[in-house]
Each structure stands twice: as C-alpha cells, then as structure tokens.
Amino acid sequence: MLKLLRCEFAKLKRKPLFFAAAAISALIPLGCALFLPEMQEFSSGAEAVDRLMSSLFQLSAYLLLMPAVVVLASNLLFEEQDNDTLKNLMTVPVSKPALALAKMTLLFLFSALFMAVGGLVNLAIVLASGLEPVGFWKLFFVGIGQGIMMWAGALPCVLLVVLLNRSYIISVIITFFYTAVNYIFGTNDYFIMQPFGFNPGTLLPGPLTFRWFFQYLDISGAQMTDLTERISPYFVTTPQAFLVVILESAVFLTLIALVYKRQSC
Questions:
Q1: Which of 146, 144, 4, 164 is nearest to 70 (CA)?
Q2: Partner of 92 at 20 to 30 A CA spacing, among 51, 73, 98, 213?
Q3: CB under 8 Å to 192, separation ≥6 — which residues?
Q4: Tens digits of residue pLDDT in 19-55
C-alpha cells in the first residue's frame, strides 16, 4: 500500500492540475480581502483571523474543494485505462482495491493541503495588514479538519464516478448539484438545527461541518450572536463529527474499492 502511495506521489510531477487545484483555495480569501469593504476594516487581529477563516470555511471548502476532489478522482481512477497501462499493473500483480485506496489516500492528503494553503494565505493577509494573528493556529487546524470532512463528503460522488465508468460530464454535473445542495443545507436552519443522530443534518457534509466549525468562530455582531444562540444547542463535538466521517468514509471507500475491482481493465 505504501509503495502504491509513493508511486501516486511520483506521478504528481506530471500532473500540474493537482497543484493548480490546491492553489485555487487562495482565490476566495484573496477576493474577500481585496474587494469586500467589511474585510478591509478589521478592528483587531482576532477579528481579521475570524472573518478571513470564516470565508475559507464557508466558501472555499464548500464551493471549491468538493468539486475539485471529484474531478481529480476522475483523473486518478481512470488514468491507467486511458493510457492502457492497467493490464500491465495487474500482472505485477497490483490489487485493484489497493490501487483505488491509494488514490483515495492521495485525495485525502490533497484535501488537507487545500485547506492548509487557504489558511496560510489568510495568515499572510493578516500579517500584511500589520495585525497580530490572534487565534489563527486553532482555526488553521479546524480548517484541516474541515478539509478531511469535505473529502469524506465527496466520496459518494467519487463512487458515482466509478459506477458511471468515465462518464465525466454526467459525474461533474451531479457533483456540482450535490455541492450546491450541501451548501444550501449547510446554511438552512432546518438542517443545522437537528440533534446528532441518523438525520440529514448529521449525515450530509454541509450541515455537519457547519455545526462543527461554527462553534470555533468568534465573529462579533448582533446577527452572528443571534445565529450562535439559536444553533449552539445543535453543535457537534469533534469526536461526534469525526465518528460520522470515519463511518461514512469506511462504507464508501469499501464500495469504491469493490466497484473498481469489478470493472474490466
């Protein structure tokens, strides 16, 4: 498994798409810092950190990371078929489930890197403003956690990509629909004000991640205070959030490996 993962890493030097996809995590934080007036009038370093990291959590992770994971998964899972090298790999022999899991592990690391890059860009913005980045590192690691949660949330779409067997266009369309649904549900009171349990507010990555990361933000304002008071009884703890992530990822990784194994070379 480790050898396969090393091989996947070695292939990245021929895949500038991966590095470009990681770099786009900087787009929304930079756009917010440059063009939104409320982002240019920070009263303190703590406020700057909270507002910038909030934009990373609520926009970059939701709108950019999940589609990027699925698009990259399509590229990874079918590159051997496209290059007609999968049959050669099978004679080594290489297990197709192990190959699929190595690729999913690479996407796991990409998701963490995506959020790390966005977080470090925010740190640079705060420092360039001459402010002290109070509370940054706590939110930085919250961002890494959210990247992992969004990776797990993207796995149903990756499974769909494997099932459709290189039907890229349909897969991407469904992925963007799924992303939009999660973004809407993640800001809808009905879904974020549900108890922890077997319900959409817990099982869907949009509401689950919002109910987890929002408790770590400290953004001032009457509207934000009111929102926090309403949803705080429905916050999920870190063990609860990652229990869901572990269970869901185990189920979908197993299904992805089985479906990928059954497909012809």
A1: 164
A2: 73
A3: 186, 201, 207, 210, 211, 231, 234
A4: 777 777 777 777 776 766 555 567 777 888 888 888 8
Task: Report how far residue 171's alpha carbon sits from residue 158's, in angstroms, rounded to the nearest whole number.
Answer: 8
Cα distance between residue 111 and residue 148, in whole Å: 6
What is the average pLDDT across 190-215? 91
Q: Which residues does 60 contact at the CB level (< 8 Å), separation at least 6? A: 25, 27, 28, 29, 114, 115, 118
DSSP assignments along 62-99, one per residue: IIIIHHHHHHHHHHHHTHHHHTT-HHHHHTTT--HHHH
Tell me how crowded residue 137 is: count the other CB atoms within 10 A of its CB. Answer: 12
Q: How far apart are CA 144 and CA 60, in angstroms?
A: 12
Instruction: Summarize pLDDT for 126-162 with one digit per residue, the tens.
Output: 888 888 888 899 999 999 999 999 999 999 988 988 8
- Total-model pTM: 0.86
